[in-house]
Write a sequence for this structure.
């Protein structure tokens, strides 16, 4: 008798059929070349789908009395050949799951069925003396047990998916509520005069700016002032601009941002403001990430112009 007494008919999983009479593995009806020891391990695993088969059980079944070190190398080689035959991988297993330091688990649904041959049909008609509980009935019993285990796994997967979607939904709703609370999208309505000097008060007014802590002597990801004429930028960096001019943020509310001017490398390598330079101001909402809001102006020559 084979595992679980079901050697009269094949075990099927995915596109594979494991014929326990001819001791052969087929994929879509085509024989698959599997080394004998690897095939024995497959028989052992598929006879107990979704159950842990320990390394000790495999050793006692395939290599009784062998030294432990020699067993480890043989087992690892056989498992490698089995995965190659199935087109499986240890990193993303579809069939053979490694349980670290314990053993292996066959994770694909396994179903039992009859071999499509005249000899087998004769046996299922009662000529082999099996009696009322013949291979067909036994096949249905095994398949029902496997179906129950698979149903439980599906319930677990569906429950996990539902929880994941719920968490994602909460995150999305929170981010969306942040956008709505902050005026849906940041908008710059006015900017005070920008002068050709490092220390100055710049006031940016609008809606949807969110809230941000004061940010001195360092770059922030949520605001940028770019001198389009001289080709440098302060604040948020862009891939083509590695300038080290920073912005000193002294106040940031939903409707107003107050800067104390420029610091860092301002004045070096031509990174400074000149009267008449074209300026772009960009603002993102720190809470929702919405943006940027854009505004264009020019550097004034004096406070009165």
């Amino acid at each position: 008798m084979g595992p679980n007494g079901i050697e009269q008919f094949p075990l099927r999983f995915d596109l594979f059929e494991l014929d326990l009479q001819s001791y052969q593995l087929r994929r879509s009806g085509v024989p698959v070349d599997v080394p004998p020891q690897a095939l024995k391990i497959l028989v052992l695993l598929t006879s107990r789908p979704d159950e842990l088969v320990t390394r000790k059980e495999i050793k006692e079944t395939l290599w009784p009395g062998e030294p432990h070190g020699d067993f480890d190398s043989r087992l690892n080689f056989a498992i490698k050949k089995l995965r190659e035959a199935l087109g499986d991988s240890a990193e993303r297993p579809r069939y053979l799951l490694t349980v670290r330091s314990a053993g292996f688990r066959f994770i694909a649904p396994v179903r039992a069925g009859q071999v499509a041959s005249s000899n087998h049909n004769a046996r299922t008609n009662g000529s082999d003396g099996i009696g009322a509980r013949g291979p067909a009935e036994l096949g249905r019993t095994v398949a029902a047990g496997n179906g129950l285990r698979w149903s439980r796994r599906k319930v677990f997967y569906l429950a996990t998916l539902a929880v994941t979607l719920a968490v994602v939904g909460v995150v999305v709703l929170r981010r969306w509520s942040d956008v709505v609370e902050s005026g849906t999208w940041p908008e710059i309505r006015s900017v005070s005069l920008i002068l050709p000097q490092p220390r100055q008060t710049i006031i940016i007014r609008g809606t949807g700016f969110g809230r941000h802590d004061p940010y001195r002597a360092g770059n922030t990801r949520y605001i940028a002032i770019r001198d389009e004429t001289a080709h440098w930028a302060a604040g948020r960096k862009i891939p083509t601009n590695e300038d080290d001019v920073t912005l000193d943020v002294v106040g940031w509310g939903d409707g107003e941002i107050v800067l104390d001017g420029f610091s860092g490398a301002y004045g070096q390598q031509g990174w400074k403001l000149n009267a008449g330079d074209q300026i772009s101001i960009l603002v993102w909402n720190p809470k929702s990430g919405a943006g940027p809001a854009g505004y264009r102006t020019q550097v004034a020559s004096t406070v009165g112009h």
About this structure: The chain has two domains: 3-146, 187-298.
